[in-house]
């Protein structure tokens, strides 16, 4: 049978399995892998039992069409398990069920759980009721469905806090005895056990249905504790694991560093299917405020390394998110990137990591323009921003300069030196303050190496503008001073970083942090 349904999985970790290892594997590998197949799975929810019964854990995935679970897209997930997944799942008692959707009724107050912020979703109550139908009465299935839909669910809908009831039956993919499973979603505060609920359990019709058509009933209660997105984001469990629990995915795209300084590097899929690498670190609490960074053209997310090291020590309350934008190295964009698409990428990244609102977004150069665009386009997703070393318009001379740089990157010297290497040297010399070029040789070599690795193909919120005093030999200071009063209704403050050029956060990370730390 084709049509919508669900994958219903109960789990009980065996004694001896580290519970943090169990959660970290499930949250950072198993679940997100499935959520990255939106044509099959529209969501993934994890529950923990509240009735002191086992299995303790339940995962539910809504499936767009049950026949997808017979296709290689799904079956290869199990056939090509990572070594870690095979070892971990071997220590978990797992029972999977496939169910076809029969009917669904929702309260006017119901919103899809995956669309809720974590603080609203976590703690929602689920009651799962399974009934086994009599084989002696061929009309059992239809009679029980009729009772559910015409009496039981309408009565449950009167229980305070009732949000939704869905009825499922054993899928044709599974076979065996036909069972009906009803899932009842309730608010954290609800009337379970109250008069309305008791009334729904004590009617003449219910007594007749159970006497004639139902031979067995099971009831479980759960509390929601984790909602999957397409990105790996569970730093909390990862931070409590030993270094030996480090993980690298079979495709090499995901790496985890366990321990107190936990780090997740992985990627998400933007709305056009482009994969964007990201790095998540800092405070591992799932409720920690998040600061995100947007790097400049030609650099990578590692341009922020010196600043991030200082920030993690000075302000340990923050979780830190960095990513590589489209057009950078391994992320060639099929169409020209615009500030709109770059802002959309940040929105997609936040959505897949289930970050409802950033504490701050900090960007430089092209990243500064992207930051400002994001603040204008998605103000509800941002508390404050810091936009650095950028201009609001590009002159004809600047356009020609970029054409010249592209030509240099695509060229090859007579001695075989790639043009991108020449461009890297020239670019860093233009970006950095003369003081940096002379006194900070290691910084110069680090940035030159980063740029040379590029693939040639390749305001309703508070804001702060920052610029290196020597950027463009002072020209950009004047340019940004010229438009700072036009940002938002009241303008924003402009601060300068001394003895720094185009990338003050890379050249002089301490001085840059001194400038922005109070604003953060």
UniProtKB/TrEMBL annotation:
Q: Would you say which domain of life the source belongs to?
A: Eukaryota
The name this protein carries in UniProt is AB hydrolase-1 domain-containing protein
One Pfam family this chain carries? Abhydrolase_1
Q: Which PANTHER family match?
A: HYDROLASE ALPHA/BETA FOLD FAMILY, PEROXISOMAL MEMBRANE PROTEIN LPX1
Q: Which residues cross the membrane?
A: none
SUPFAM superfamilies documented for this protein: alpha/beta-Hydrolases
Which residue intervals define the domain AB hydrolase-1 in the entry? 289-403
**Coiled coil stretches, renumbered:** none
């Amino acid at each position: 049978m084709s049509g919508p349904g669900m994958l219903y999985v109960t789990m009980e970790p065996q004694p001896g399995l580290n519970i943090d290892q169990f959660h970290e594997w499930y949250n950072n590998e198993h679940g997100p892998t499935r959520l990255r197949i939106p044509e099959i799975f529209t969501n993934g929810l994890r529950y923990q039992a509240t009735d002191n019964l086992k299995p303790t854990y339940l995962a539910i995935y809504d499936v767009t069409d049950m026949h997808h679970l017979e296709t290689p897209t799904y079956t290869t997930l199990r056939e090509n398990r990572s070594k870690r997944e095979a070892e971990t799942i071997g220590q978990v008692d797992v029972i999977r069920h496939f169910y076809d959707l029969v009917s669904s009724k929702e309260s006017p107050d119901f919103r899809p759980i995956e669309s809720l912020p974590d603080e609203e979703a976590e703690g929602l109550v689920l009651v799962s009721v399974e009934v086994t139908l009599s084989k002696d009465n061929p009309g059992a299935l239809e009679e029980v469905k009729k009772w559910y839909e015409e009496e039981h669910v309408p009565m449950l809908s009167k229980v305070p806090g009732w949000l939704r009831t869905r009825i499922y039956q054993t899928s044709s993919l599974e076979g065996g005895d036909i069972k009906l499973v009803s899932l009842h979603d309730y608010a954290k505060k609800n009337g379970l056990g109250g008069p309305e609920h008791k009334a729904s359990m004590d009617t003449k019709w219910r007594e007749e249905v159970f006497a004639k058509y139902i031979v067995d009933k099971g009831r479980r209660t759960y509390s929601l504790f984790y909602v999957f997105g397409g990105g790996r984001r569970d730093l909390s469990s990862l931070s409590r694991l030993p270094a030996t629990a480090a993980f690298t995915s079979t495709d090499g795209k995901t790496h985890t560093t366990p321990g107190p300084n936990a780090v997740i590097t992985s990627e998400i899929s933007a709305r056009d299917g482009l994969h964007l690498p990201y790095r998540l670190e800092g405070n591992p609490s799932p409720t920690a405020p998040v600061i995100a960074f947007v790097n400049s053209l030609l650099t990578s997310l590692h341009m922020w390394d010196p600043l991030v090291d200082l920030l993690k020590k000075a302000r340990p309350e923050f979780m830190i998110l960095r990513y590589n934008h489209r057009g950078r190295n391994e992320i060639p964009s099929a169409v020209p990137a615009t500030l709109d698409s770059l802002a959309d990428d940040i929105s997609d990244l936040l959505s897949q990591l289930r970050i409802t609102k950033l504490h701050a977004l900090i960007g430089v150069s092209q990243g500064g323009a992207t930051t400002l665009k994001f603040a204008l386009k998605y103000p509800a997703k941002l508390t404050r921003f810091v936009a650095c070393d950028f201009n609001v318009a590009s002159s004809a001379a600047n356009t020609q300069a970029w054409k010249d740089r592209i030509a240099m990157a695509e060229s090859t010297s007579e001695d075989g030196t790639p043009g991108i290497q020449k461009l890297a040297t020239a670019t860093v010399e233009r970006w950095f303050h003369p003081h940096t070029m002379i006194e900070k040789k290691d910084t110069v070599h680090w940035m030159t190496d980063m740029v040379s690795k590029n693939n040639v193909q390749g305001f309703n919120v508070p804001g702060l503008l920052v610029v290196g005093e020597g950027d463009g030999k002072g020209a950009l200071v004047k340019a940004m001073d010229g438009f700072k009063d036009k940002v938002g209704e009241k303008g924003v403050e402009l601060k300068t970083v001394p003895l720094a050029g185009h990338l003050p956060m890379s050249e002089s990370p301490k001085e840059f942090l001194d400038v922005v730390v109070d604003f953060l």
